[in-house]
């Protein structure tokens, strides 16, 4: 029988065991010390990253609404589609990975088909060793519902998921795009108001933190922690959607009609408090597709390019269409500036309404000779007459009386050397007056007095002009009226708009009367609006620096008009400019004033400002055609003649079966309504005559002879020099007898140019 281990052998075995175990435990202890004490935070974060799924819950971005609560920008719920690649693997004993591969193909094929995505990219995502891979952002509800159905049918809930997110929508596409701006993929404001008020609009994101098991699947709901998002504030603007619509419409047409090559711009503002009612630059872009080039001319140019040249041109055109010309681009205001020079002279007491000036064919200042537009010699003029005729030479003399130092003081006080402070990104900081006290000599003072050589922004111009018109107070133009939180509590309102008084109330009243004279008797007759008192100042400024740099090219100009209405208590200020118009006439009084007049005709009634007609105006107002169908012919005739209309009858029936123009059509007094009394008897169509380049009376005669009605449009209709330039139905078109043709008239004026 063998003996067991001796005591000595046990001792040796124990010693050997101790020799082996102590180093192992020592090494383990050292490693544990490093892991727990030295690198503890690192491993905690790594473990949390493997065990926790942390998902951001984006806050709903606040709406942007107009002053009446109409939505201009809003956010809707969309979804972010993701997969958990770690959970794609079926099991460790999956033979040759066949089942896992089949699952990868199922996911890739299904999602690619539903979302119209690249299958290869989805397949590559399924093979990653991660727990969260985004497949597509901003998935709309119809697609999300299909994905959910796909997940349910194939039991893929542990692999594919949908997180809620939001997407920005602009219901009116291009409306107010100049000021609205847009957001990026992460809902961060990139341009315009979206960027300026980004912190207020974006709200505060929430979070969902959920535990994951060893294979990356989300644990039950009890292991989940949620921090709810806080919605952003609603931004209520001073903008009026109705007014903005008409500004966009009229400006776009003016840019087209006058072949404007460097965009047009228009601002409508309340001169009393600086609230911007509308702001537009055309061409602009679609807020729902801001990276697409919207201008057709630019698109055609890009289509002809390729490679890096094409990429560069696209980027430049994007920046151009996003750029707000009204706050970012400098221009020489031309004769519109004369209302500021005039206010300086009156306020300083160096001129009054009866001051006399003499305008000859030329006027010399130092080594420079100045002329009025087209070398006119106006002769002896009072202050009011000089303003109405936009006399350059008279305003040079006013500037001389004001003097260098006072001119610069007023220029600064009117805010023309500083940003206006409007709540938009990108307002230029360039100082408008380019001369110091020592450098501004007699020639510089003369040129500045009638609006040349000093460069300002359109927003500076309308703000300074409003100070002259509102009683003398400089205001801060602004777009934010108030902000409301998610519970509709007002949390922010616009600051006090008035900065300082820059001219006296008496000076303001005198300048308002002078501006009304410009519309009644001067260069802005085309801006007359029947029933309303309108005042303003026209301008046609040469782009001096640009033209000097391009002496071989035709000279370029900016045509503009600034207007106020009602002139006895201005509620609306309008500045419109067309940068580089081309056509037979490029003067502000001819091509801009009538557009502003038409715009005011739309705006003023909307604001509840009632027209006040003179007896003369009442006699020329259009009437609405009464409804005389289905009544006796004799009764119909009496009804129409009582409304001041003429009657033509077609057929031998006793009852009116049809009328033209139809009921409630606007038609001039003394117009003709054709009554049809027999189904079988119809009048022969008539041919629309050429009604352009005619006086009002001549156009009326042509219309009568042709058997159509003519509706007079344009706002110089009381002026004997008004000439028609556009008709609503083209000449030689066949129409029904009695059809109303709208014919627009304007006075051709060349008296507002600052060069001559």
Helix share, percent: 25-40%
Number of helical segments? 25
Number of strands: 31
Nearest-angstrom radius of gyration? 37 Å
The portion of residues forming beta strands comes to 15-25%
Could you explain the architecture of this structure?
36% of the residues lie in helices and 21% in strands. The chain has 756 residues and is α+β, with helices and mostly antiparallel strands. The protein has 4 domains: 8-38; 54-237, Penicillin-binding protein 2a (Domain 2) (Alpha-Beta Complex); 327-612, DD-peptidase/beta-lactamase superfamily (Beta-lactamase); 617-746, Trypsin Inhibitor V, Chain A. Strands 2, 3, 4, 5, 8, 16 and 17 form a 7-stranded mixed sheet that branches. A 5-stranded antiparallel sheet has the order 10-9-21-20-19, with helices on both faces. Strands 1-6-7 form a 3-stranded antiparallel sheet. Helix 9 (241-257) packs antiparallel against helix 22, helix 13 (338-348) crosses helix 19 (505-521) and helix 14 (383-389) packs across helix 19 (505-521). The longest helix has 32 residues, at 7-38. The model has no long low-confidence stretch (mean pLDDT 87).
Key structural traits:
single chain, 756 residues, alpha+beta, Penicillin-binding protein 2a (Domain 2), Beta-lactamase, 5-stranded antiparallel β-sheet, 25 helices, 21% strand, globular
